[in-house]
Predict the 3D structure of the following.
Amino acid sequence: MEIDVLRGIPVFWQGVLSSLLAAIITAICVHLFVMVSLQTRQRAERRKEFAQAQFEKIRSPDSILRVEGYFVALFELLKYLFVANILWVVSDPLVGIFWPLGAFFGLASLVTFYLGLRWLYDISRGSQRKLSPSALSILSARYGARDTYVDVKNVLQKELCDTGLSVIVGNQLADDPVPSVGKVLEVHYAFEGKEHVRRVPERQVLSIP
């Protein structure tokens, strides 16, 4: 026999309980949607920063950084193409067995191939976003290690352009303050009204924003 959990409850209160339940379910769905959207944006930003870092390495005067940039860029591109090829091969027999599933794998293959081409475009062009002169400012910057640091704020100010700041962290910023020791560039900057701090190890790329 079917059990009605609302049996015996007046119709008015049944409506109230149903409305509360619908509101709770809606709130949960909205919260999940916001979380997924935020994570998607964060992944996209990290992917953009990663591509920009490889873009700078490939164009670096340091041959070691150039080789590293080319290697990482090529590896990422081959990863996309390999996955796209596997999905396409799998989709072919599935079309004859159950065509919706085969079509799904085929579409996934095309999307993965597009992401590979987008990655290639990103590392070949770099960031092209134009910033207003007041959008980004260097508040302080120092380069060194342990208790020995050199003020390099003016050096970074000269590197600012309308797309932001991108520089390889190394002794070209200042005379080697601590020979034979790995150094760090610490930058305190303001971007679009918010203050940020970045610490970038030597031989890596500082890219802002």
In short: Residues 136-208 form one domain. The mean pLDDT is 77.
